[in-house]
Design brief:
This protein has 4 helices and 15 strands. The chain is α+β, with helices and mostly antiparallel strands.
Length: about 240
């Protein structure tokens, strides 16, 4: 099993690892440890490079295939061999933008849950922009403006952001740990990673985040739409 370095340190830009398997069909390799996030929970996968024996491979993305984290490589060059030592480097510019964006989604979710008791029904993100769906019967410009002001107040409040792993039974003692309408956490997961914005939001989450809401920067609600009788979508963007 690959050690998920991104779970402990989302700011890790480079790392050393050993190739433990080669996936010829998908033109990729499996490592004993990685800082590349494989995607999930609406967060896209990381990209970057792997260097070994004087050669550098571009990592298009990381994908979970048959339970393994496969680093998919560009080009048709021969894959490095099992046992090769590699030096991985993330596309940090992209990763940090996603970390800011993912934390912004938690700020939005935390504010709406706190102020309006609305559950999340869906969401997605890419660098510096994302959308999230909530259980609202109605949504109007004045309400959106209130939300916009409240989420940016939480950025200015510079709330610490932390993450930890807990046994499943202990994690589910936390009130409202699952903010989505449907619990998407598989039954087989015994350890639950919990992300907390101090005093605002706490959720089960496997993604990467910044350490303080002040790092997110200004959040702009750029649009909103009705996606059903009790399903409203909010679109946000961040500054570069």
């Amino acid at each position: 099993m690959t050690e998920a370095l991104y779970h402990d340190d989302s700011y890790l830009k480079e790392f050393d690892a050993t190739i433990t398997a080669v996936n010829e069909e998908n033109h990729g390799v499996v490592l004993d440890r990685t800082a590349f996030f494989p995607g999930g929970g609406g967060q896209p996968a990381d990209s970057g490079t792997l260097a070994t024996d004087g050669k550098t491979f571009t990592v298009k993305r990381v994908k979970r295939i048959s339970g393994k984290l496969v680093h998919l490589l560009e080009g048709q060059d021969s894959l490095p061999e099992v046992g090769s030592q590699v030096h991985g480097q993330l596309d940090w510019h992209k990763r940090y933008q996603i970390m800011r964006t993912h934390t912004a989604m938690h700020i939005l979710c935390g504010v709406i849950f706190r102020d309006y008791a609305a559950s999340v029904t869906g969401g997605n993100m890419e660098p510096l922009k994302g959308r999230m769906d909530f259980e609202f019967e109605t949504m109007h410009r004045e309400l959106v403006d209130e939300i916009n002001a409240a989420i940016n107040t939480e950025v200015v409040n510079a709330r610490p952001v932390s993450w930890r792993e807990l046994p499943r039974e202990e994690a589910f003692q936390i009130p409202d740990l699952i903010r989505t309408k449907i619990n998407l956490l598989p039954e087989g997961i015994k350890q639950v990673r919990v992300v907390e914005i101090e005093g605002l939001d706490i959720q089960a989450d496997g993604g990467t985040h910044v350490k303080n809401t002040s790092e997110v920067g200004q959040i702009r609600v750029v649009d909103y739409k009705s996606k059903g009788a009790i399903n409203k979508r909010i679109y946000v963007e961040l500054d570069y």
